[in-house]
Amino acid sequence: MLTVNSIKNGIVIDHIKAGCGIKIFNYLGLNSADYSVALIMNAESKQLGKKDIIKIENNLDMDLTVLGFIDPNITINIIDDETIKRKINLRLPDKIENVIKCKNPRCITSVEDSISNVFYLIDEDRGEYKCKYCDEIYKVSDM
């Protein structure tokens, strides 16, 4: 059995869908961190069967909107003196900006670099977003 010690102060990103932990790890730039970081992949989970976990021995300023878009079932635990001080449950954000790029070649965002890619959540159950400018549909599962 694998044992990873608890952290004194920092963040634990838990309940990550198995296989998605590396996306979050890379998004947060943890490969170049100068503090302790643990990426645990395919850990046993009673709820999910298998899950990924990231333990960060540091407090980071994270964009929870992007993390919620990557995996809306994530739980963020803020650890202080080896105790969970705050628990944040994520969900799909209502609006995302410059996280994904519209794939419609006729969309104004494909032509004008200065225009932000903005998508609005239209169906939370199916994880569907619609481009603000051209109504192109984007599914989270396409990511």
TrEMBL record:
Residues 2-90 form the Aspartate carbamoyltransferase regulatory subunit N-terminal domain. InterPro entries: Asp_carbamoyltransf_reg_N (IPR020545), Asp_carbamoylTrfase_reg (IPR002801), Asp_carbamoyltrfase_reg_C (IPR020542), Asp_carbatrfase_reg_C_sf (IPR036792), Asp_carbatrfase_reg_N_sf (IPR036793). GO terms for cellular component: aspartate carbamoyltransferase complex. Pfam families: PyrI (PF01948), PyrI_C (PF02748). GO terms for biological process: 'de novo' pyrimidine nucleobase biosynthetic process; pyrimidine nucleotide biosynthetic process. Residues 95-140 form the Aspartate carbamoyltransferase regulatory subunit C-terminal domain. The keyword Metal-binding applies. One of its GO terms (molecular function) is metal ion binding. Keywords: Metal-binding, Pyrimidine biosynthesis, Zinc. This is Aspartate carbamoyltransferase regulatory subunit.
